[in-house]
Amino acid sequence: MKILSQEETKRICDKVLSLSRGDECEVKVTGSRTGNIRYARNAVSTAGLVEDSQLTVAVAFGKKQGVASINEFDDKSLEKAVRRAEDLARLAPDNPEFMPAVSKQEYKASNTYSKNTAAIDPDFRAQVAAYSIENSRKNKLQAAGFFTDSTSFEAVANSNGVFGHQEETGVNFTLTVRTEDGRGSGWVRRDAGDVSKFDAREASDVAIEKALRSVDAKALEPGRYTVILEPAATSDLLAYMFSALSARSADEGRSFLSKKGGANRLGDKLFDEQVNIWSDPWDKDIAVTPWDSGSLLARERMDIVRNGKVAALDYSRFWAQKQGKRAVGSPGNFIMAGTNKETAELIANTKKGVLVTRTWYIRMVDPQSLLLTGLTRDGTFYIENGKIKHPIKNFRFNESPVTMLNNIEEVGKPVILGGDESPYKLLIPAMKVRDFNFTSLSDAV
């Protein structure tokens, strides 16, 4: 599939808008080319290339709206999609929370595209797998990994003159390495927009080393421990908090940001003072599209948490109007301030604690306290006097990221991550946290 240029998506969008008979019309054109290679038990199982494209058109008559999608872009197909959306709009009931199409926006371009990533071919993917498989065999280990690379585009437009076009690239790599007897397991994850910042050999070595070191794990009594969470473990917990920043949920008493009487906790100090989190569409490491694909509002750089205080909430256009607030595009990334310390330095500064490689199977227990439960996995180790002493059996934990960010003792160097539970791009550090609550043991490796 061809990745459409700005000129081509502009022509398609203009054609759709010209065909519409509604009071207003909104168009989105997307496409992607995603390569992949998957392997398990030291052998490639699947590899391929998936290509897809889609046009979605939304037409409104008053507060009635209809939406139709199609993956053919000839004039006849475009008209068919518009008429279908119009027919559905006429049949729809009034939407009491309907918001008119946004006015023309200024979209400042962000650097989300890499020629190096777009040029990835099957040979490159095979070499990524080869690094893991060959080194695992040498160490009598079993490797199971998945590498994907994607090149995509998105164009948006509406009948008020809005138009934006953006191309984006990215790679994602996860690898689990286990001993042949299944008693040891190591894991690693890497994400990048520019593949030149991804080192398959380095990533594979991390998982291999953890698999070798995690054999003969000893049981440690459940309880509250000082814990060093590696960035991947941290990001999967914080992702739940980032998804719960809705002003409406807070105002309606449904979130950890709610106060009694219908107020929210904007401006309140909820975290340790060293916690600073912000969103920046133009960040050099994790840039995102300069618009929110849902509302088409332009994104802005914004502080989310400043010196431990809640600095911003996410207002939908409807809720912002109802509450007399200004709506901006919802964040597409989250960045947490860190230091230049590697995880090894955090370990060296720890008298007694637990190192967690990964959190897994996380589920929400209580949205109003953001209490989560989940398991550690693929490399959990006991730290004593600044050194990893021995592997330990995995735990189930019950913990809230709100509590976690109140109990920070030290933070490390931020790392780029997608986050298994998150639709956002993240730049998150490792962190040392006191009183992390392990509630029971898990026999899984």
Q: Keyphrases for this structure?
A:
10 helices; alpha+beta; 445 residues; 23% helix; 17 strands; six-stranded antiparallel β-sheet; five-stranded mixed β-barrel
Mean pLDDT: 96
- Residue share in β-strands: 35-45%
Number of strands: 17
Radius of gyration: 24 Å
- Helix proportion: 10-25%
Summary, kept brief:
With 445 residues, the chain is an alpha+beta fold. It has helices spanning 6-19, 75-91, 115-118, 122-138, 200-213, 231-242, 247-251, 317-323, 343-348, 401-406, and strands spanning 24-40, 43-61, 64-70, 141-158, 163-179, 185-192, 223-229, 277-279, 302-306, 309-310, 333-336, 352-366, 371-384, 387-391, 394-399, 408-417, 425-442.
Can you describe this structure?
The protein is an alpha+beta fold. Helix content is 23%, strand content 39%. It is built from 10 helices and 17 strands. It has helices at residues 6-19, 75-91, 115-118, 122-138, 200-213, 231-242, 247-251, 317-323, 343-348, 401-406; strands spanning 24-40, 43-61, 64-70, 141-158, 163-179, 185-192, 223-229, 277-279, 302-306, 309-310, 333-336, 352-366, 371-384, 387-391, 394-399, 408-417, 425-442. The strands form 2 sheets. A 6-stranded antiparallel sheet has the order 3-2-1-4-5-6. Strand 1 and strand 2 form a beta hairpin. Helix 4 runs parallel beside helix 5. The longest helix is centred in the first third of the chain and has 17 residues, at 75-91.
Topology summary:
Elements lengths: L5 H14 L4 E17 L2 E19 L2 E7 L4 H17 L23 H4 L3 H17 L2 E18 L4 E17 L5 E8 L7 H14 L9 E7 L1 H12 L4 H5 L25 E3 L22 E5 L2 E2 L6 H7 L9 E4 L6 H6 L3 E15 L4 E14 L2 E5 L2 E6 L1 H6 L1 E10 L7 E18 L3
Parallel strand pairs: 7-12, 11-17
Antiparallel strand pairs: 1-2, 1-4, 2-3, 4-5, 5-6, 7-17, 8-9, 8-11, 9-10, 12-13, 13-14, 13-15, 15-17, 16-17
